[in-house]
Amino acid sequence: MTKPWLVALGLALTTASVGEAQTFPTDDPVIRRMWQEGMGEGSQAWELAQALLDSIGPRLTGSPQYAAAGDWLLSKYAQWGIDAEKQEYGTWRGWDRGTTHVDLVEPRVRTLNATMLAWSPGTEGPVEAEFVALPVFSSDADFEAWLPRARGRIVGVSYAEPSCRAPESWEAFATEASWASMQQQRAQGRLAWVRSLSAALGQGGGGAEGRMARRLEEAGAVAIFSAQWSDGWGADKIFDAATSEIPNVHLSCEDYGLVMRLSQNEQSPKVRLDARSEFLGDVPAFNVVGMIRGTELPDEYVLLGAHFDSWDGASGATDNGTGTIMMLEAMRILKAAYPDPRRTIVVGHWSAEEQGLIGSTAFAADNPAVIDGMQAAFNQDNGTWRVDYIRMMGFTGAGEHFARWFSALPSEITDHIELDVPGMPESGGSDHMSFICKPVPAFRFQSNYPDYRQYTWHTGIDTFDKVVFDDLRNNATLAAMVAYMASEDPDRVPRDTRLLPDTRPQGPQRTTLRNQASAAFGAWPECRPPRRSFGG
Ligand SMILES: [Zn+2]
């Protein structure tokens, strides 16, 4: 039986740690109101995330869900009295994902964990076919001799992992010898697979699986199975199809391993496949852009941004549902606590980031007045954990501004954030690059990366349950407060940029790995021309 006083004590402790921990270095009523709206009772992070991620789901560019999610954003902004619109910049290939259902029917029955890849053609109803693993080829002649076997069959083009047990489990529980032997087996197996594909296709380099899939498609295969393990328990990367006529279906790490072993050991696996999808022609490509008009300096802008599109193997919860909700919630907080900003505050929900930062590139090209008047841009695209690192991206005057802004914020929001001054510009990564290249002071709110990369980034388990709501509330409040400070700042953030070292420093480094990751050495990153269609 639970003792009532224990429950009461627990509640009291919880309340104390959440509600009363805040410190206010200033008694600024705007900051106080933002804390209430973002961290306290007023927070809508959970409700917004639940509606977007569970009910609308993933937001693949060109999908009906992306369009529905855009309408949902507009309805939220309308409800809060914030002006917002869809800014069309071109078109993209429309595609509607239907159901994917794959069963192993021989030599035994098992329903397989399968997901059709994005923009894959489907089947016309269920089809049954033998599954064959690609054999190991030593030459293109070898491959040509084998190729007729693909006709009427489903073929696996990916390497089958010998173990889908997460590396952290091997490290914790295996003997050193068996973990070392597994790593060696995996490395040799992968290398042999890559060499076999290169030998078969007569060329090496990236994209070999895709080229192989297209050769098999031409040769009359019924479908292509592929697999891309994400190196963790139950985590697989789900990207787009390589085929244009037949289904390209991803199997989970071990279900792919199962059908591959059955084929390689001549146990004649047979599969029933039912995959539905529909191509919808070209559909409008758009960003959703919202705005709270500045009162004193309406032609100067503070930009909050996060890409709105996602891959569609799951719900796009941490890539980039959390960035989306962070900026959406920040706009709600701003409107409630700071409805008449000094500078104009803009929010950009970018399209087609996953296809190459397309939406933000188009926005930067189509809105020269915003670029000219930009005070600073803040982007988030890095999963669910608390923002703990912001690099100044090589803007030499930015650190001074951040220092001033942070000195006015509650220490709960800022204490764990490392500011990297002057930092290096990045060479790629996310939508902040579409502004840095101008060069416009643009910053990325960054949080722990290794866990994100392993488990939820572009995987089939990037779902609602992975969101850490305490962090999301913290991040949304941070975005609102930083936007407020940047808007009120008496001075513009200068656009001066640092000298760049020619090459990555060699040898022992004083800087952290994070400082070095994807940094641009030698030359300032260049802007890309906006891509305005699927074929463009
Ligand atoms: Zn992303």
Nutshell version of this structure?
By secondary structure, the protein is an alpha/beta fold.
Key structural traits:
Aminopeptidase; 536 residues; binds zinc ion; 16 strands; twelve-stranded mixed β-sheet; Glucose Oxidase, domain 1; 38% helix; 18 helices; alpha/beta
Explain what you see.
The structure is a single chain. The protein is an alpha/beta fold. The chain has 18 helices and 16 strands. The strands form three sheets. Strands 1, 2, 3, 4, 5, 6, 9, 10, 11, 12, 13 and 16 form a twelve-stranded mixed β-sheet that branches. A two-stranded antiparallel ribbon has the order 7-8. The termini are far apart. The structure holds zinc ion. The site of zinc ion has 5 residues, from helix 10.
Are there runs of 5+ residues with pLDDT below 50, and where? Answer: 1-20
Helix content: 25-40%
The helix count comes to 18
In CATH, the architecture of the largest domain is 3-Layer(aba) Sandwich
Number of domains: 2
Return the CATH topology of the largest domain.
Answer: Aminopeptidase
Instruction: Give the CA-CA distance, first to last residue.
Output: 67 Å
